[in-house]
């Protein structure tokens, strides 16, 4: 199960993780919807680009720009959080959405906990695979921890003062705001 668009749904994708003895060139990517590591995508590009059921995931030390030529080919891109305290995935997500214009599913995988979901959503994530040792229903509540945000991000694009009508001011967005 995953959280997608603020709903718990069945996950029909498999995340491929290389084992210690596997190589990106030699690993066999199974049939069906598979999210492969970026290094597998690069190593097997000629074969994998023919498939419509391939997604890609980026490690926290990889860059969104590494996918700039292929970003629109994927219906799902995942970003791995190797540990709760590693925040590099937030920047990767923001860059995929804001700089590269990625419109497909952007999924957080790895050490994903409830406390992160609200902030992950703000930078463009719309799907979350919480840690398997936690209740997904509790994680879903993390998306509604706060009712309003002040600053801008990918979501919402406008800051609070641009999204609200103030008493005594009939025009929002003027120089007097």
From TrEMBL:
<dbReference type="Pfam" id="PF06073">
    <property type="entry name" value="DUF934"/>
</dbReference>
<dbReference type="InterPro" id="IPR008318">
    <property type="entry name" value="UCP030820"/>
</dbReference>
<protein>
    <submittedName>
        <fullName>Uncharacterized conserved protein, DUF934 family</fullName>
    </submittedName>
</protein>
């Amino acid at each position: 199960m995953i959280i997608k668009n603020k709903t718990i749904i069945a996950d029909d994708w498999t995340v491929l993780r290389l084992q210690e003895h596997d190589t990106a060139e030699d690993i066999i990517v199974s049939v069906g919807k598979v999210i492969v590591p970026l290094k597998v995508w690069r190593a097997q590009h000629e074969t994998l680009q023919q498939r419509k059921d391939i997604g890609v995931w980026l490690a926290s030390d990889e860059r969104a720009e590494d996918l700039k030529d292929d970003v629109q080919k994927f219906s799902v891109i995942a970003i791995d959080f190797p540990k709760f305290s590693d925040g590099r995935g937030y920047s990767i997500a923001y860059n995929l959405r804001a700089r590269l214009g990625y419109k497909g599913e952007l999924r957080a995988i790895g050490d994903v906990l409830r406390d992160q979901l609200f902030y992950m959503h703000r930078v463009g994530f719309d799907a979350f695979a919480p840690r398997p040792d936690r209740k997904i229903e509790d994680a879903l509540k993390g998306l509604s921890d706060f009712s309003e945000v002040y600053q801008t991000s990918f979501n919402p694009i406008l800051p609070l003062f641009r999204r609200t009508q103030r008493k005594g001011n009939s025009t929002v967005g003027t120089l007097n705001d």
